[in-house]
Design a protein that fits this description.
The chain is built from 11 helices and 17 strands. Strands 13-12-11-14-15-17-16 form a 7-stranded mixed beta sheet, with helices on both faces. Strands 2-3-1-4 form a 4-stranded antiparallel beta sheet. Helix 6 crosses helix 7 and helix 9 runs parallel beside helix 10. The protein is elongated, with a radius of gyration of 28 Å. The termini are far apart. The N terminus is likely disordered.
């Protein structure tokens, strides 16, 4: 019988498979009453047995030649046998050896109980991001010495993962990058991510990307109308821009970013999603590019740079047509009243630019970013 690797082994080498193998007393497989039926009748037999609540889901079905052995919870009664024979015609009841079904743990806590003390278990990350085949964790200081153990557990928990990385700092600088440390799996930070029917190539160590904004990207893209000119001021690898272009037939999206690596992947993603005639990548500072090339052309502006978007409100207003347009504005705001505070600051900043907020069509909390701090999204009609 094939065994998975247990916790008794070393955690230092990446491996896949079952972490908690079921080992019977004396190394023997459990014996069970079973029903033997030809392969061609196996599906019908399983359905018939389930209807009688006879299937033992803790034991694995066996195949022997042209027959299938189905483990049972108990020996069927004469009446049940008669019922089964009426449906299946060919069946034999016997007692055989079966391998147990090993149920995979569903959380880091379940995987690591018994390996870490209770106070460390309570510190395990309850949430994390998965981008393509890479998981991104935030490891608290008290678990720093156990990060390799946690990384290997993540590989076991999610079979599609190739790499687990830990955040080694916050998102910093004008290029919006953060330091990452590989703690398990392949030594890489480049991956492929799919969202809303689009494919994105990116390197998590070189560009900013958050899968937690998937809903927000679809929400904004769904509002865009045909024949609009859209400026994505902080486009990154293009998740807003590409999705908008995929949703609309006649659209022009100017996707700006000052990170050369982000623009490299942006161009790759534009081609990969077949939107070359609708999305136009631009490398540089949005302030300079809008003033030099894009002033007064936009029907809609996306400002997904919460830490610094307020400093760009004046140029975003310049980008809008003379009649005005819509700005999708993002900011970090603290409690109490983060929505009211963000809205007040936006209205004041737009007013200073010589424009006016005619309507706040939508304001929402996007996600928590720190204790008592939120990312806020505001859709505003500017005149």
């Amino acid at each position: 019988m094939r065994r998975g690797k247990s916790f008794e082994g070393s955690w230092k080498k990446p491996y896949r498979g079952i972490i908690f193998p079921f080992i019977c007393a004396g190394g023997q497989m459990p014996r069970s009453t079973c029903l033997s039926t030809p392969k061609k009748l196996a599906e019908a037999a399983i359905l018939a047995l389930r209807a009688l609540n006879l299937v033992d889901n803790n034991l694995a079905i066996r195949r022997v030649g042209e027959h299938v052995l189905l483990p049972l919870l108990r020996a069927p009664t004469p009446r049940e046998i008669a019922s089964l024979k009426g449906e299946l015609r060919e069946l034999v009841v016997s007692v055989e050896d079966f391998e147990p079904v090993v149920k995979r743990p569903k959380s880091l806590v379940a995987l690591l109980e018994g390996r870490l003390s209770p106070h460390l278990i309570s510190s395990l990350p309850r949430s994390y991001d998965i981008v393509g085949d890479i998981a991104i964790l935030e490891i608290p200081p008290e678990l720093e010495n156990y990060k390799d153990l946690i990384g290997e557990a993540m590989l076991t928990l999610h079979r599609n993962l190739q790499t687990v990385v830990a955040k080694a700092g916050s998102v910093q600088g004008p290029l919006r990058t953060r330091e990452l440390t590989v703690i398990a799996g392949a030594r890489k930070t480049e991956t492929t991510y799919r969202e809303h029917g689009c494919v994105y190539y990116l390197d998590l160590a070189k560009v900013y990307f958050s899968p937690r904004l998937a809903y927000e990207r679809d929400r904004v893209a769904s509002q865009v109308q045909e024949n609009e000119n859209v400026i994505d001021m902080f486009a990154g690898v293009g998740p807003f821009s590409v999705l908008i272009a995929k949703k609309r037939r006649n659209i022009r999206v100017y996707a700006i970013d000052m990170n050369p690596d982000a623009v490299k992947y942006l161009k790759l993603n534009i081609a990969a999603n077949g939107v070359q005639d609708k999305v136009f990548p631009m490398l540089g500072d949005a302030k300079e590019l809008i003033k030099e090339k894009l002033r007064g052309i936009a029907n809609r502006v996306i400002m997904n740079l919460p830490a610094e978007a307020m400093a760009y409100i004046d140029v975003a207003c310049e980008a809008l047509t003379h009649e005005g347009g819509i700005i999708h504005f993002y900011e970090f705001a603290s409690e109490p009243n983060p929505l009211e505070n963000a809205q007040s600051r936006l209205i004041e900043a737009v007013s200073k630019s010589g424009r006016k907020v005619q309507t706040i069509s939508k304001i929402r909390l996007v996600k928590p970013t720190a204790p008592r701090e939120w990312q806020v999204a505001i859709d505003s009609i500017i005149r």
